Amino acid sequence: MRSNLWLDHLWMPFTSHNEMLDYPPLVIERGSGIYLYGDDGKQYIDAIGSWWVSAFGHCNPQINDAVKKQLDKLEHVLMAGFISDTTAELTSLLGEVLPPQLKRIFYSDNGSTSVEVALKIALQYHAVRGDDERSEFVALGGGYHGDTLGAVSVGGIPSFHTLFQERFKKAHFTDSPYCFRCPSGKDPQNCSAECMDSLHNVLNEHGSRIAGCIFEPMVQGAIGMRIYPPKVLHRIFALCKKHKIITIADEVAVGFGRTGEMFACDHAGLVPDIMCLAKCLTGGYLPLAVTAVKEEIYDEFKGGPFSNRTLNHGHTFTGNPLASAAAVATLKLLIQDKYPKSAESVMQYFAKGLSSLDNHKNISGVRHLGFAGAFEIVKNKETKEPFPKETQVPFKISQIALQKGLIIRPLGNTVYYMPPFNIKIEELDQIFSLTKETIEEVFNEHTSS
Ligand SMILES: *Cc1c(COP(=O)(O)O)cnc(C)c1O
Fold this sequence. Notes:
By secondary structure, this protein is an alpha/beta fold. It is 35% helix and 15% strand. The chain is built from 14 helices and 16 strands. The strands form four sheets. Strands 4-12-11-10-7-5-6 form a seven-stranded mixed sheet, sandwiched between helices. A four-stranded mixed sheet has the order 1-2-3-15. The chain is globular, with a radius of gyration of 22 Å. The mean pLDDT is 96. The site of pyridoxal-5'-phosphate (PLP) has 14 residues, from helix 5.
C-alpha cells in the first residue's frame, strides 16, 4: 500500500480543502488511448481529455516515440541566441498549419502565458506607435484566459476572477454570448448577435483607450462550454476594426481541430491579429504555448537592440525541445491523417449521441461543435431553472460517473465532453451509455428523496 503522507502536503487546484479530504484524488498509474488506469486496479474513460489537452489519446505510440527519441538527443537548451533543431522544425510546421497572415510565432509555456504575451504585445504595439493612451482591454463576459494576473484581469468568471481584479486591474466586459440563456432574449438561428451591442457600447465610450479585445472564438470553455454562432465573431471583428483595436483570439482550448475546423476562427473565415494556442499543441504531453502574430504587428517590433521595439519577455523553458518534439509529432498526426476533416463522420456520431440525451427531463441546452459537446442540468426544462447550488447535483453526477468508470467534471451545471480526435464509435457508445446510467441513477435518487 502506498502511504497517504502526500495528502498532508498537497494543495490541489480549483479544489476546496474539505473536498480534497472527503474525495481524495484518484491516483492514476498509466494510460492508453481514452483509458486511464488507477492504482485501485480500475479502468476509467477519460471523456474530458485531461482538461481538454489529449488530442490523440494517452500514450499515443507516435508521440511517445518522438519524445523518447528527443530525450536521447537533447532535453533542453535556452531559447535566446539558441534554438533546438526540433523547435526550429516545429516553427516551420506551425508556419504551414497556421493562417499565412499569422506569420510570427512566439513561444511560451502554457495557455496563461500565451495570453500574457498577447496582452503585452498589444500594449507595446500601440506604445511604439506613439499611442500611449491605449492601455486598457475589453473582454467577453464569461470568458476565461488563464490564471496568471494579466489573464485574470481579462477573465469574466466572477468566482475565479473578481477578487483579484478588484486588487489588480480590471478590463471592460461585454455580455456573454450565451445562446442557451441569451442575454438579449434572442434565438441564435435568427439573431443579429445582439449580445455584442454591449461591445458596441463599451467601444463607443472607451474605444480610444483600448489596446486589444480578447475572446474565446466560438466556444467559451471554462464558464461551461457556451457555443455561439460565427456572426458574433463577425461583429467583434468589425467593431474592433472600426476602433483600431487589436483582436486577440484565445484559441488555447479550441485550436488545432477541436471544433471541426483547424482553428475556431475558421468557422467565420476570419484571421485575428493575434492568436493564442496551447492545450492540444503537444497532444496533451508537455506544457508549450504559442502566441502567433500578424506580420504587420510584428513590423512595429523590428528594430535594433537599443530601440524600444524589443519584446522583453521570455520564460526559462520557452521552446523546450521535449515539448517541441511532442508538438511536432502531434502536428504531423494532424496533417498526415487530415484532421479534423477526416473525423467528420465520427463528430456527427458524437453529436447524435449528445442529442439522444436531450429527451431526459433534467437535461437541456445540448450543444456541440466538432469534438466539443455539452449539456446543462436543469430542474425544470420549460423554465431552464437550475437546481439550487446546495443540492450539488453536478458533483453527484461526476462522483457516480467515476464509480462507473467514466471521468467527467461538470463546469457549474454543465456536463461536457472533449474526446480525443481519434476516438472510435464504440468508445463514444460507451461514454454515452455510462452517462445515461449515471443520470438515471442520480435523478431517481433525487426525486425519491
Ligand atoms: C485553459 C485555458 C487557458 C489557460 O491555459 P493554461 O495552460 O491552463 O495556463 C487560457 N485560455 C483558455 C481559453 C483556456 O481554455
